[in-house]
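Handout, section B. The chain below has 314 residues.
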Amino acid sequence: MAKRSGHKKGSLAFRPRKRAESQMPSINFWPSSSEKRLLGFAGYKAGMTHLIYVDDSESPNKGNEVFASATVVECPPMVVYGVRGYKNGKPIGDILCKDEKILKRIGISKRKDNSFSAADVDHVFVLAYTCPFLTGIGKKTPERMEIAVGGKDCAEKLDYAMSLLGKEVRVSEVFKPGEFLDAIAITKGKGWQGTVKRFGTAIQRRKATGKRRHIGTLGPWHPAYVQYTVPMPGQMGYHKRTELNKRIMKIGPGSEMAVAGGFPHYGVIKTDYLLIKGSLAGPQKRLIRFRKAVRVSLPPRQPQISYISLDSKQ
């Protein structure tokens, strides 16, 4: 039987626990920024390593060298192929680049002219796609996405977005070391799981009902149906999750992250990379989208890193 004083199993904030509709996560909210810049980027998770750096936070370890795990994300350049304007939450029009080679890579054969001005919109986004063919993961099809643009007003945002049209953007042009990000990704899929693994419920004693890894009760008699809050078996993993306030420890070319033998199930990093403190959702080769942190507005401080492990991860 369930323990009367035990807490409820499974947070209701993550319901429904069903499979994500797409492996490329969508971003439904972007922070406001008066700085003229792109507010997001994307990369592919390569693996994890560890580092030693000088703690510059307000913790008791401030000023001391501390050990931390870190995730390496390969971020090949992204190509801006269009500019999109929104008015009252609805798209007004798209301005596509004139280079047919850029549009052909994402399957756009006909270019429609739906131009707009800064007076017609209240939000400006760039349309960009990734370049996985520059990495060693064996993927050729790029992912298309919208990325918000920062600026003082719509005129400045539109001018900056038009200056990027048809060009490649590197991650070092968008983010800086020490900056805080939000990471949005699809977690590892674990298939159909029972309640013990899915919600962490207690294992029944052997003589209770002849079963051990099941729920002792499905709820009260009234209401006379099983409520959705009752832990039940079902899909576990492959969910969209957003992690807030992930710190960038380092940005650099792939030659600096020459891990012996490459990262398991990924390979050698060939383009630019982000070194993010802590772990990130998803397996190797999974797309991870980054945006400017919505809850932290601290200026970026360059971390003092004294050691990054490049030993073999095999």
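Note. DSSP finds four helices and 15 strands in the chain. Compare this with the example in section A.
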